[in-house]
Write a sequence for this structure.
């Protein structure tokens, strides 16, 4: 459907093309291909002729600016840091970005209003006169910039291709790098056509994946193989207002009293429409926070959408289970919502084993064999209408310098959330950790920062039936005012580090929680009376900022026994934990403990081309049967899985399974 807005943009593009062609003829050089941005949805495939034209366009007209490029850059160079031969690089030539790559990345950075107008298919009209006016001086500036970027010297510039933005009001020029878009139909057409059949075959290929590899530690006791700030990330390409992969930029909170936060955000389309996905780093220095923020942003970029242009395998569970020749994960093993939720929630439909849904290839680390996994359980943004039986989040997704590192930290996250939910919904008697018993300087500093904000911090040994250390931290506002309680958790293989990680997580929330409560007091008060109103992720933590919710956390505020030093509580762990010289030892230890408890351990590779060029790997881990974290009171799968009632008995915390009457039926406070 051609809208008035699309027609206005197209006419402006034709005028620009004619006037640039006149200047090209006067200079006896070829005229550039001109495309327009903003009149139509550029995330949908265009007709073949239009798609070819857009891919080769080097002048892109928008309502406020003209983008010149892509230009320059060395062929096959993804941006310098991850170039072939660089540490951790894959060695494969990076794809060249085209005009369509630019168009797709540009549109993802538009405002919510603009994206909704472009992407929902509703008729759109322009507010104001036809655009843009394109006076002669502006066209002259565009032509001069185009000639500059097509000069021979421009194409000898190292690094990724660049895009220059000319502001049509001020004539200010800004140049930024552009990374190729993995889902660009122009760049990927040949590849996708050639690999579509191969993708289906690979998904059902019973041949095992490559084995897990040894990964020697860089220093004794280290859990990460590389520090976060050791990755040469192309920050200018990841965050810029023209074509940033992760958003338009970052912001720094220089007034934060607890950490040195750096954050960014971008709109990603999910099952509930456009969602503002924030990524951040919260360390003690802005440099490290910035590196952590970009790594988290890349992890979420990989986990929200599948970035493979080849179509996924689409089939029904029942048919695949009977014919695939490889294992197939039944999504019911990971938990479903109660029947009432499917009846009352218009965005959900019950799982139907006969309905075709998208699948991706995973890897069972228990069986050392491939397994087909519903894509909906791995990618937590928009799926298809056919697989809306559950809405996942980023639980179990992790990024590392190698697959083994990513899998390990994905599993630790699964164990952490499972233990937190077992402790909360199961009302488990968690031993309190005495944080005053000889805290190290880092922990002491964190406790002091919390105290300056009026909070006391507590920590609890949250192990239930798995031996891996899990610590839940709780900050309690001393005067009982707004922002009363803040929870966080961490899992790790070193108890001291795990305590510090949980407390550090708390410090990221308490500066902002009182304000979040004051912004919506009536709404949160209504949630406290009717848990059915708890519908979104932010509701859970904000709800426990209300003073009246403290009565539901009595088991944390009034523990049954005095606090004990971490060294005493984790004495058994210090005897039995893995101490090998290789990170693979940690991964195998976690895998074996989960397998011993009766679970499969599955890994799905989510690594995007941008990450692979930098030597990064992102993995989604799944352990069917562990309690999954969900947000929204009506969407709590954990309440309906057998493990919630059996884990405390299995862990020796009680002699019998929990009854329904013994559960804490209050929305969890996990942030």
């Amino acid at each position: 459907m051609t809208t008035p807005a699309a027609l206005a943009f197209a006419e402006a593009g034709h005028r620009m093309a004619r006037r640039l062609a006149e200047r090209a003829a006067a200079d006896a050089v070829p005229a550039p291909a001109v495309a327009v941005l903003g009149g139509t949805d550029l995330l949908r495939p265009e007709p073949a002729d239009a798609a070819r034209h857009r891919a080769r366009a080097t002048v892109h007209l928008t309502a406020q600016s003209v983008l010149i490029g892509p230009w320059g850059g060395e062929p096959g160079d993804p941006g310098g840091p991850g170039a072939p031969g660089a540490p951790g690089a894959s060695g494969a030539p990076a794809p060249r970005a085209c005009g369509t790559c630019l168009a797709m990345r540009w549109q993802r950075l538009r405002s919510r209003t603009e994206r909704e107008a472009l992407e929902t298919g509703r008729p759109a009209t322009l507010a104001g006169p036809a655009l843009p006016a394109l006076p002669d001086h502006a066209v002259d500036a565009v032509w001069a910039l185009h000639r500059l970027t097509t000069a021979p010297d421009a194409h000898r510039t190292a690094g990724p291709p660049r895009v220059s933005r000319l502001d049509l009001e001020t004539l200010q020029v800004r140049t930024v790098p552009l990374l190729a878009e993995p889902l660009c139909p122009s760049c990927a057409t040949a590849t996708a056509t050639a690999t579509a059949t191969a993708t289906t075959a690979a998904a059902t290929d019973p041949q095992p994946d490559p084995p897990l590899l040894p990964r020697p530690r860089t220093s004794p006791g280290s859990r990460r193989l590389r520090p976060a700030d050791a990755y040469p990330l192309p920050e200018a390409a990841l965050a810029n207002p023209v074509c940033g992969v992760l958003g338009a930029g970052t912001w720094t909170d220089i007034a934060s009293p607890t950490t040195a936060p750096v954050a960014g955000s971008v709109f990603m389309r999910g099952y509930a429409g456009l969602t503002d996905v924030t990524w951040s780093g919260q360390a003690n220095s802005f440099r490290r926070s910035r590196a952590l923020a970009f790594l988290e942003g890349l992890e979420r970029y990989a986990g929200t959408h599948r970035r493979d242009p080849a179509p996924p395998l689409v089939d029904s569970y029942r048919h695949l289970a009977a014919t695939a020749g490889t294992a197939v994960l039944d999504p019911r093993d990971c938990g479903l919502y109660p029947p009432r939720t499917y009846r009352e929630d218009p965005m959900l439909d019950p799982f139907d084993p006969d309905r075709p849904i998208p699948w991706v290839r995973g890897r069972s680390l228990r069986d050392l064999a491939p397994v087909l996994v519903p894509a909906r359980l791995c990618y937590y943004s928009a799926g298809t209408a056919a697989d809306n039986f559950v809405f996942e989040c980023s639980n179990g997704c992790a990024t590392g310098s190698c697959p083994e590192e990513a899998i390990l930290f994905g599993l630790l996250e699964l164990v952490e959330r499972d233990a937190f939910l077992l402790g909360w919904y199961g009302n488990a008697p968690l031993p309190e950790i005495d944080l005053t018993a000889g805290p190290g300087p880092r922990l002491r500093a964190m406790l002091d920062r919390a105290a300056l904000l009026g909070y006391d911090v507590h920590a609890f040994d949250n192990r239930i039936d798995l031996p891996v250390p899990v610590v839940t931290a709780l900050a309690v506002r001393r005067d009982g005012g707004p922002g009363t309680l803040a929870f966080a958790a961490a899992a790790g293989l070193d108890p001291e580090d795990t305590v510090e990680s949980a407390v550090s997580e708390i410090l990221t929330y308490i500066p902002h929680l009182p304000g979040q409560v004051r912004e919506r007091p009536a709404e949160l008060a209504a949630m406290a009376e009717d848990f059915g109103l708890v519908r979104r992720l932010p509701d859970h933590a904000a709800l426990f900022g209300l003073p009246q919710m403290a009565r539901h956390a009595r088991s944390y505020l009034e523990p049954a026994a005095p606090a004990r030093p971490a060294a005493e509580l984790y004495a058994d762990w210090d005897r039995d934990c893995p101490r090998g010289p290789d990170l693979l030892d940690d991964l195998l230890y976690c895998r074996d403990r989960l397998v011993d408890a009766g679970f499969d351990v599955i890994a799905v590779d989510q690594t995007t081309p941008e990450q692979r060029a930098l030597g990064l790997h992102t993995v989604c881990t799944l352990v069917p049967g562990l309690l999954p974290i969900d947000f929204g009171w009506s969407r709590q799968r954990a309440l309906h899985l057998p493990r919630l009632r059996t884990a405390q008995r299995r862990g020796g915390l009680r002699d019998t399974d929990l009854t329904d009457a013994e559960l804490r039926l209050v929305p969890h406070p996990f942030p």
